[in-house]
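Hi again,

Forgot to attach this to my earlier email, sorry! This is the prediction with uracil bound. I've pasted everything inline since the attachment limit keeps bouncing my files.
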Amino acid sequence: MKNLKNALLLKQLYQLKQLGYRYTDITPFQEEKVDLALPDTLESLQKQALACHLCELSKSRKKVVFGEGNPHADILIIGEGPGATEDSSGKPFVGRSGEVLTKMLQNVLGLSRNDVYITNIVKCRPPNNRVPTPTEAHTCQSYLLKQIALIQPRLILTLGATAYHYLTGDDTGITKIRGTIHTYGKATLLPTYHPSYLLRNPSAKKEVMVDLLKVKELMGKW
Ligand code: URA
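Structure tokens for the complex follow:
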């Protein structure tokens, strides 16, 4: 709730900045007039996200890519942000990176996309697939945190440096942090490489395999 309050305040400040204000005594928006509570079901949360205009990405997106999969999944997969295919379809990881991810889930973990839940740090495509800015990531974070609270996964698998960094606030490089096991609230958190990195560096597949075998080992204990 505090995140949403901050996001709304930030939005208001950006709007004033765009209007030319450099300093202002704005009265922070009136809390009592705004319902700050995010919905308590994934469906209503998605509905709210689909109508979101809290950041710049909402201006250029075609579709909001909220996330999809099993709402009670043990495994939550978090990527960076939608690409062009995802922006057109409204579904996460359905382009070339998505093919790699789907195959990894199937071949190593014996899971289909419907067994897990897949989402991203930001729900709207950053233009030209650039990395989301800190403002965009923090504005969108309320949705992600509520998704985590509602799904209550046992394991969170972050894909790539951006997802790990924005979820945890830790900026340790991905090469160093991948494959290490952390606690995130009640869940275990495991960072690994992003599938798009594997498309560019196929030799890194063996490291991702090692990481996924750790996931498999954890699954065996549930
Ligand atoms: N890359 C991501 O990080 N997320 C997607 O949904 C697709 C590509």
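The pocket of uracil is lined by residues 79-83, 86, 92-93, 95, 97, 120 (CB under 6 Å). The radius of gyration is 18 Å.

That should be everything now.

G.
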